[in-house]
Design the sequence.
């Protein structure tokens, strides 16, 4: 494979040859065409895609029908789903292809480390991801700009702006809004996304997106793994995808956008850390106060893309409703177990019925531990979670 | 009734082969060990799940000691390496949660080190007396 790699450039501009797919896709329909071709040439058994129900709602669909995949093309920014658990639950034994945001890909890799899924079977078509928005926030944004949230029919995010189209009794209304401006006012992207520094899914098999592309209907594709290369070649050879070599300027543009995004994310991270200025005892009060509201529904554990304990979990096993602890064992064990593995996707906060600021809490605990360990979860499948290691490679002398 | 001096409650996990025998040795040598300590014997320090320590703190322990055989002396080959690994996690966790780092201790004590055991318990008791009761501790109101 090494030889082949040397011959093939890693960056391409690609688009769907089928005009219908190309038109419907956000950037030339490359992702849709790749999945369709993989299904039709029996490269994968099933594909997992997100079907649009409305601007605010999408449902994950596991399908082997190419027509259904074609229906699902186009990007959805207000559906902060993480597909990891669906792969584990429904397609762990099948060859599956799916589009992945960086957090999906990282979740799948963490699950592979925990032997819940075999990476050989999973083809991850990575998507560059600037951010997702919580559907409720998007409704607020629409209302803020005088649109009826229920009549919004189309949304788009481009060059730092949100574009909304509403259809109120046949009258189309359009709005362009700067994301920065919105975020100054407290609207905007999810907290986890604002501070996320993994914008290009370098851990997936392919990384696709419009950054660096010179044409609205062409996708910039980076081939990252051998598996990704076979998938990519399959799509090209079967005649579904047309490619050309990516211009050097495009590669630079993409890197520049990525670096800019990362810089902004880092500054957001600083800004959003409400606990930074607190003293030790104030921090304790904050955690007790925030976690006191927990009703122990278990939703955060259910959606967590890293958690693989299923029913016999330690966090639920050690929790007893009759306890009157200041912080319940459920929360303590969950936070402890995620210290080395949290990928900061923010799913837990999205589903929390009592709005505990879990993104902030998990980030506070896990980020310092991961920095201490020099370990980033979800990047390399060969690196075991440090909590399961016997030795960490550095020695901590007993006091 | 006169005000009694506050006595901390210290929970110690001792491994069967070294530190529990070490605690025993402290008694045999007639050494004074502060009565603040409550010992739980486990077969190996590798058996100490971080959740045990967290539960100990929640149940009202002012400090938790994790003790075991010296590195390399473990009865079960390398289990105390795992203890050391988990302790690193616990240390960061307790610190971030807003508890004082002195509430968590790791110590390697062999079966013959009775004096070391007594000394350690004294030191922990003194330190905890200085920083006061754990904020996680729930006192019953009379």
Sequence:
């Amino acid at each position: 494979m090494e030889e082949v790699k040397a011959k093939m450039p890693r960056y391409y501009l690609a688009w769907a040859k089928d005009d219908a797919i190309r038109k419907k896709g956000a950037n030339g329909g490359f992702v849709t065409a790749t999945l369709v071709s993989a299904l039709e040439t029996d490269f994968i058994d099933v594909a997992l895609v997100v079907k649009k129900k409305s601007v605010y709602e999408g449902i994950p669909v596991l399908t082997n029908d190419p027509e259904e995949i074609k229906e699902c093309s186009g990007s959805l920014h207000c559906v902060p789903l993480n597909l990891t658990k669906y792969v584990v639950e429904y397609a762990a034994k099948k060859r599956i292809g799916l589009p992945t945001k960086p957090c999906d890909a990282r979740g799948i890799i963490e699950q592979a480390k925990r032997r819940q899924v075999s990476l050989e079977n999973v083809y991850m078509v990575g998507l560059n991801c600037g951010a997702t928005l919580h559907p409720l926030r998007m409704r607020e944004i629409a209302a803020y700009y005088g649109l009826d949230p229920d009549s919004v029919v189309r949304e788009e995010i481009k060059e730092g702006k949100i574009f909304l189209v509403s259809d109120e009794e046949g009258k189309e209304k359009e709005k362009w809004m700067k994301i920065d401006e919105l975020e100054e006012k407290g609207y905007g992207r999810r907290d986890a996304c604002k501070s996320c520094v993994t914008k290009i899914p370098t851990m997936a098999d392919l990384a696709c997106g419009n950054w660096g592309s010179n044409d609205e209907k062409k996708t910039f594709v980076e081939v990252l793994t051998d598996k990704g290369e076979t998938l990519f070649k399959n799509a090209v050879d079967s005649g579904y995808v047309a490619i050309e070599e990516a211009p050097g300027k495009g590669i630079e543009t993409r890197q520049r956008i990525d670096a800019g995004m990362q810089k902004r994310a880092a500054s957001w991270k600083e800004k959003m850390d409400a606990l930074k200025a607190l003293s030790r005892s104030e921090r304790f009060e904050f955690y007790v106060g925030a976690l006191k509201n927990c009703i122990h529904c278990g939703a955060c554990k259910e959606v967590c893309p890293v958690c693989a304990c299923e029913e016999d979990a330690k966090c639920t096993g050690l929790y007893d409703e009759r306890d009157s602890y200041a912080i319940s064992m459920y929360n303590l064990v969950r936070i402890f177990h995620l210290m080395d593995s949290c990928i900061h996707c923010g799913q837990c906060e999205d589903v929390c019925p009592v709005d505990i600021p879990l993104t902030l809490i998990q980030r506070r605990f896990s980020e310092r531990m991961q920095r201490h360990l020099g370990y980033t979860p979800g990047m390399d499948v060969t690196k075991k979670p440090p909590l399961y290691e016997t030795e960490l490679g550095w020695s901590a002398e007993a006091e | 009734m006169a005000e009694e001096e506050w006595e901390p409650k210290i929970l110690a996990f001792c491994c069967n082969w070294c530190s529990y025998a070490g605690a025993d040795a402290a008694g045999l040598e007639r050494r004074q060990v502060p009565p603040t300590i409550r010992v739980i014997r486990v077969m190996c320090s590798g058996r100490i799940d971080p959740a045990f320590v967290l539960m100990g703190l929640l149940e009202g322990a002012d400090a938790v000691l994790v003790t075991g055989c010296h590195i390399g002396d473990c009865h079960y080959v390398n289990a105390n390496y795992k203890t050391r690994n988990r302790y690193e996690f616990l240390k960061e966790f307790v610190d971030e949660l807003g508890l004082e780092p002195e509430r968590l201790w790791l110590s390697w004590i062999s079966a013959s080190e009775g004096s070391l055991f007594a000394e350690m318990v004294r030191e922990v008791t003194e330190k905890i007396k200085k920083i006061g009761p754990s904020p996680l501790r729930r006192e019953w109101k009379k």
Chain B touches chain A at residues 49-51, 54-55, 58-59, 78, 81-82, 84-90, 92-93, 96-100, 105-108, 135-136, 138 (CB under 8 Å). The longest strand of chain B covers residues 10-15. Chain B is about 40% helix and 15% strand. Helices of chain B lie at 19-28, 50-58, 79-97, 114-131.
